[in-house]
């Protein structure tokens, strides 16, 4: 109980004091996660919608693959990216290992299948309602996809939240490719792992609560945005 009480106290102190080191770690966490989410959204949203709307050979296999890859082991992804970016790997010349860019790559690989699979399901359900209308109006496929993505924007926000939550909570892959270097690649989750290994359980719990607060704040902001958008639409 004492560790829990101390962790709450430390979390409050860290937030109130505006600790610069904590701010640096939080900023990097958000930058890496936001970048990975943006990349995954640019890839995953159109691909997921295409799998839902288009009819082509191999579509079922790709859908099964996307669903299966939602469970990618983070350490396997981290090891794969590490081997690709290491000096002996094919991309070693880029010198990206142990940089935030390597962490973004690893997180993007992890969450892109999630974005694809969840988007496909959302758009497939919506397309079932509008497919007859699209056919009768001879709507081109790309136009139908854009229309469906816009109409499903509230559900798509939830899909993106799932990707955000997966990315910001990631530790295994980013630890392998980032190295948890202070002032360079240390993010919230790797800092928590480091403090736990040091036996600083109270500080680790405090950092965990700060991470939870960030996740709750982002979810609250998205919920507020959805509420405002719906209110505007009904006005």
Automatic annotation (TrEMBL):
InterPro entries the record matches: ABC_perm_TupB-like, MetI-like, MetI-like_sf
Keywords from the UniProt entry: Membrane, Transmembrane, Transmembrane helix
SUPFAM superfamilies: MetI-like
Subcellular location: Cell membrane
Main location: membrane
Annotated ranges, domain ABC transmembrane type-1: 26-222
Membrane topology qualifier: Multi-pass membrane protein
Segment forming the signal sequence: none
Membrane-spanning intervals of the chain: 32-54, 61-85, 97-118, 156-181, 201-222
Cited NCBIfam families: ABC_perm1
Protein name, per record: ABC transporter permease
Organism whose genome encodes this protein: Roseibium polysiphoniae
């Amino acid at each position: 109980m004492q560790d829990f009480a101390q962790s709450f106290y430390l979390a409050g102190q860290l937030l109130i004091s505006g600790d610069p080191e904590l701010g640096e770690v939080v900023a990097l966490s958000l930058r890496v996660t936001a970048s990975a989410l943006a990349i995954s959204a640019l890839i995953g949203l159109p691909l997921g919608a295409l799998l839902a709307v288009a009819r082509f050979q191999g579509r079922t296999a790709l859908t099964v693959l996307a669903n299966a890859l939602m469970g990618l082991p983070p350490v396997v992804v981290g090891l794969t990216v590490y081997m690709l970016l290491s000096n002996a790997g094919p991309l070693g010349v880029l010198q990206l290992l142990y940089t935030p860019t390597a962490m973004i790559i690893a997180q993007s690989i992890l969450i892109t299948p999630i974005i694809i699979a969840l988007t496909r399901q959302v758009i497939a359900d919506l397309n079932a309602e509008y497919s007859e209308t699209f056919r009768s109006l001879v709507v081109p496929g790309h136009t139908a996809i854009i229309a469906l993505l816009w109409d499903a924007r509230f559900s798509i926000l939830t899909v993106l939240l799932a990707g955000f939550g997966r990315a910001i909570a990631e530790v295994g892959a980013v630890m392998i490719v980032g190295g948890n270097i202070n002032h360079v690649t240390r993010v919230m989750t790797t800092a928590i792992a480091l403090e736990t290994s040091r036996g600083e359980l109270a500080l680790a719990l405090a950092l965990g609560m700060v991470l939870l607060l960030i996740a709750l704040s982002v979810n609250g902001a998205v919920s507020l945005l959805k509420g405002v958008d719906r209110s505007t639409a009904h006005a």
